[in-house]
Amino acid sequence: MPDAAPPTPTEPRRAPQGWRVEGAPPAQEAGAEGGLRRFKPPGGRRFWWILAGLLAFNVLASVLTGGAPERLEVPYTTFRDQVQAGNVAEVTSRGDTIQGRFRQEVRFPAGPKGESETMFETERPAFADDELLDLLVREDVVVNARPVDEGRSLLATILLGFGPTLLIVALFVFLARRAMGGASGLTGLGRSRAKRYEASEQRTTFADVAGIDESEEEIVEIVDFLKNPDRYRKLGGTIPKGVLLSGLPGTGKTLLARAMAGEAGVPFFSLSASEFIEMVVGVGASRVRDLFKQAMEAAPAIIFIDELDAIGRARGGGSAIGGHDEREQTLNQILTEMDGFSGSEGVIVVAATNRPEILDPALLRPGRFDRRVVVNPPDQRGRLEILQVHTRGIPLASDVDLGSLASSTPGMVGADLKNLVNEAALTAARRNHERVSLGDFTDALEKIILGTARKILLSPAERERTAYHESGHALLGMLQPGADPVRKISIVPRGRALGVTFQSPTADRYGYDADYLRGRIIGALGGRAAEELVYGDVTTGAESDLEQVTKIARQMVGRWGMSEALGPVSVLPGPSDQPLLFPGMDGSVSEETRRLLDEEVRRIVDECYDEAAAKLRANRDKLEALARALLERETLDEEEAYRVAGVAAQPSEADLLAARVVPEL
């Protein structure tokens, strides 16, 4: 495929469009020659005033001290000797003090260690009666009429003595006022750091949101209230004070909040909850007050707080010292501000969190976050809609089937699908394609799920062992009834693994039975069982497999009640619970229960391993065929893998469940 023609030198280079933050003001243009931005010192004009004060002080100090030269103090007798020798040029006298200048430098005291200078000072004894004036006139010495130099004045001494100290104190006061956001008017610690976005041409709307229709419908009512508040007020209805968006990372909580502000056409104040917290006590509460004040002045408006659990954790935990810390002060201020709403201000607080179960109950009561919206991962139709949104500006080749991509990406959320489209576009650009093809998408999907291929050279023996290991995984995945279909087998090193076997369901699943989970364990143990069957020993290559197997078995016994010995009880913490440093030390689980849990986990794993080894021994020829094909081609896709193994594709668990459904007459 030919490369795209590069732009000619006469064509002006244009900045790429679509990179500006939603609602943010356009960036200031650089200089005509692309120069650096103008320097903006911290503190604005106050910085320049302090700098000017320092320069003025240096100039004043140099002026006040510049007229006081160093003078050599000499005895009166030495002075008379120099007058008689004709070495005194001029003198100035006041009382008995005589100052003057030698024509040539005089060293006093005599010797190599004495000081030499032309400017001198001496004291005439009160009892002297030596006709000094006649001697000076006779030796042509100029007798000046100006007063003697008495050194620094009192003002200069005070400035030089206390000036630096006063400047340092003023600097500390300036920094303290700036840090606390005082009367200096500067953006300090006490000011809110929320970014305010106004309506613009690039606002996010519900047209940019896809795959989460149920959550979107719950937000439409709030948007309608902001647009048409009188419709609800005349019936006595009030808008919810707060909306809590919860869900897995990447499901689109932040996007939904931005779309809400875009549809309503109101100012949008956005910040992360962690931005409230500083090491200075009281700053978080001050920022909360400032944020709500700004929002009420700009009402109707929306305040969006991302990652609310950073400050909204349940109070009274071990993280607080003495039951009261900076985080709790910030949380208390948020509760107070939300209580202060009457519902008529037109300010809505929208918060997002991945862990709603750890939030403080005071946040979740009616009157604060009245409405809770759960943003779930999209289903297959939702993933298709998300892919259509993210590929609107991307040229696609004719072989790209977004529906097929949506069905092959179960479990992916909006952020994952956006990353998939971006990786495919980067891959196409790297290959100089004019359009993004299906191969670019499949390679991008492999890179995201399986990892980036590593260019390392394996020895023939290690390469062969890896082929048998992956063949064991794949063959058991093909033979196990109801298992997820094998999509790809590869012995190309990716990430930390020397080989990968990728399985995925044909449809979304929301619940798993014991047979399916045992099948997962059997498939994961297939690599270790294949190595033991072929070589008679095992290696460290099954480390991640054993971790996965142990995790599934422990959850089957300890969380999901799939063990007759332990019964339908839950003795393990859920994924949202904090792990205990010493499991069972809190007395919630007895020693006997923990021992029984370990025994049941070991029993399930041993049974699954025996079944995996038995199936591989019974299908040794299929294992050898898969291993030889992998050594020859390194990578096998779904169709090739099933054909080489001589196994017909088994219906998945989702297909089996669909076949059991009897249509209504």
- Averaged pLDDT, please? 77
| CATH-level-2 architecture of the largest domain | Up-down Bundle
Order the strands across the largest sheet as they lie in space: 6-8-9-10-7-11
Largest sheet: 6 strands, mixed
Q: Work out the radius of gyration.
A: 42 Å
- Portion of residues in beta strands equals 5-15%
Query: What's the name of the CATH homologous superfamily of the largest domain?
Result: Peptidase M41
- Identify the CATH class of the largest domain: Mainly Alpha
> What overall geometry do the principal axes of the alpha carbons give?
elongated
Distance between termini?
Answer: 56 Å
Quickly count the domains. 4
Please count the helical segments: 22
Total strand count, please? 14
> What structural class should be given to the helix and strand makeup?
alpha/beta
Helix content: 40-55%
CATH topology term of the largest domain: Methane Monooxygenase Hydroxylase, Chain G, domain 1
